[in-house]
Amino acid sequence: MSKIILKKISTRADKDLNKQDIKEKTKGILSKLNALQNLLYAEGKHALLVIIQGMDASGKDGAIKNVFGTLNPQGVIVKSFKTPSPEEMSRDFLWRIHQHVPARGMIEIFNRSHYEDILITRVHKWCDDETAKKRMKAINNFEKLLTEHNNTHVIKFYLHVSPEQQQLRLDERLKEPTKMWKYNESDFKEARHWDKYMEMYEDCFENCSNIPWNIVPSDQNWYKEYLVASKVFDTLSSLDMKYPKLKK
How far apart are CA 30 and CA 9, in angstroms? Predict the structure, then answer.
């Protein structure tokens, strides 16, 4: 697998794609996802873990709402990982993660994840390179454990937004009343470390790719949601799931 260089990957849809056509395709995919989720829940043999990473304002919340929001809430759990609590800090970095992996029959969505422990921690030098390499090995083993011992299917998304689009979205949080609640001064400070974040993400992609990353162009929400929905649909469709028969 060739090294992922983010600046060489477009953050936008191909110009020949029609926005309305793609939105209609997404709507059709989402209707089929409802049936697949019901089947996943009823059969109870597989679990789906969706990991969503990306810079601030890359559209993580919107992807979760618009792709998974129409599914049966009994079968979907969203977990957002914030700054670790003192209790979490007193344990290994995967302790708080492992508590939230999906049970068979369930879809769990991580809004940020264990990857923060090799991203923001390295950008701010809270974690040295040697420790980060050990954590990457632990992450690979952790994901292997999930896939091999609990029939968990892991999809990893990086929402690829441009710095220009990120700035526009952050500025909206200062002006639009419906978005002001999202304002966080630290987001603007983190944006100044853009180049270092890109370096750390690329290193993450190179060293934690046993389960491949999906790089999702995210400047346009309609295209981002189409790509995320398509990947989830393809994954669930490939599982050859069947409804359980009557028990005799």
Answer: 26
What does pTM read for this prediction? Answer: 0.96
Strands across the sheet with 76-80, in order? Answer: 76-80, 107-111, 47-54, 152-160, 213-217
Distance CA 126, CA 196 (A): 14
Token pair of 56 as six digits: 């601030």
Query: Can you tell me which residue has the tokens 């100044």?
Result: 192
The contacts of residue 56 (CB under 8 Å, 6+ apart) are 166, 170, 184, 187, 190, 191
For every one of its 248 residues, what pLDDT tens digit does the chain have, with 9 covering 90 and above?
A: 689 999 999 999 999 999 999 999 999 999 999 999 999 999 999 999 999 999 999 999 999 999 999 999 999 999 999 999 999 999 999 999 999 999 999 999 999 999 999 999 999 999 999 999 999 999 999 999 999 999 999 999 999 999 999 999 999 999 989 989 989 888 999 999 999 999 999 999 999 999 999 999 999 999 999 999 999 999 999 999 999 999 87
Q: Assign 17 to helix, strand or coil.
A: coil
Rg (CA), the chain: 19
What superfamily does domain 39-237 belong to in CATH? P-loop containing nucleotide triphosphate hydrolases (3.40.50.300)
One-letter amino acid at 67 equals V
DSSP 3-state of 113: coil
Domain locations along the chain: 39-237
| Distance from C-alpha of 159 to C-alpha of 175, rounded to nearest angstrom | 24
Judge contact between 220 and 159, C-beta under 8 A: no
d(CA 236, CA 39): 9
